[in-house]
Amino acid sequence: MLRAFLTFVLRQRLLVFCLTLLLMGLGAWSAVHLPIDAVPDITNIQVQINTNAPSLSPLEVERQITFPVEVAVSGLPRVQQVRSVSKLGLSQVTVVFEDGVDIYFARQLVQQRLQEAQGEIPPGFGNPEMGPISTGLGEIFQYTVETPKNDLTEARTIQDWQVKQILRTLPGVAEVNSFGGLEKQYQVLIEPDALLKYGLTLRQVQEAVAANNLNRGGGYIIKNAEQFAVRGIGQVQNVEQIKNIVLTSKAGVPVKVKDVAEVKVGAALRQGAQTKDG
């Protein structure tokens, strides 16, 4: 058999040469066009439920958030495993389904049970939310946002409000995660002595700032066959407007936010570091 094959190859050298070139061409085309993933995503069918609970200890997170969520999702059809992680200010519950379960069907089942879990969590302790349809092995691209002045606050703002919003509209993109930079915040830094002086509490300051940062609709007025919309513009635009929010009055004199706190533009607390090129 081998002798006959070698004889055929030697006698049909031109045909064998052409077939070899064709095979090489097909190999080159396949190397360029085949969708080969360097790190295949072998993650099982899972739905993650994340709950942010700032300032709560891991024990409180476990008792008040993680446990009610685990109880709520237990017993779902075709659930293979339920596991959780409780950290400082964060609860994460992972519901693993059997292979072959449609991920959107699984998320629908979990979403129905989350409403039940929300009723068992004390008010103000956080709202359970499902994570995006992606896994740690589903990351496909990393990039950096750079500004002429190397302003980390400006770069993070551009990333969150421009680049991220555009990328999320692309087909196949489930989520865009932001790392690094300085997340811009308007910070109200309370002075405890000033609160005692005016007899105010921290909750009163929080409620006053929230109540004075809203736009309201007031219906409409008809005049001369024209309709005019009535609106109350109360959303703050800068630091000065926050400073001038009235908290209460003492002897007819208004007490404003600037009297009990320092208001400035700052950044969220950084808990890590992101680098480029080492």
Descriptive overview:
The model has no long low-confidence stretch (mean pLDDT 89). The protein has a four-stranded antiparallel beta sheet with strand order 2-3-1-4. The protein has a two-stranded antiparallel sheet with strand order 5-10. Strands 6-7 form a two-stranded antiparallel sheet. It is elongated and about 115 Å long. It has three domains: 46-131, Multidrug efflux transporter AcrB pore domain (Alpha-Beta Plaits); 142-181, no CATH class; 185-267, Multidrug efflux transporter AcrB TolC docking domain, DN and DC subdomains, CATH 3.30.2090. Helix 3 packs across helix 4. By secondary structure, the chain is of the alpha+beta class. Helices cover 38% and strands 23% of the residues.
List the helices and strands and how they pair.
Elements: H1 2-11, H2 13-33, E1 46-52, H3 58-73, E2 79-87, E3 90-97, H4 103-120, E4 129-130, H5 152-167, E5 184-190, H6 192-198, H7 202-211, E6 216-223, E7 226-232, H8 239-243, E8 246-250, E9 253-256, H9 257-260, E10 261-267
Helix pairs in contact: 3-4
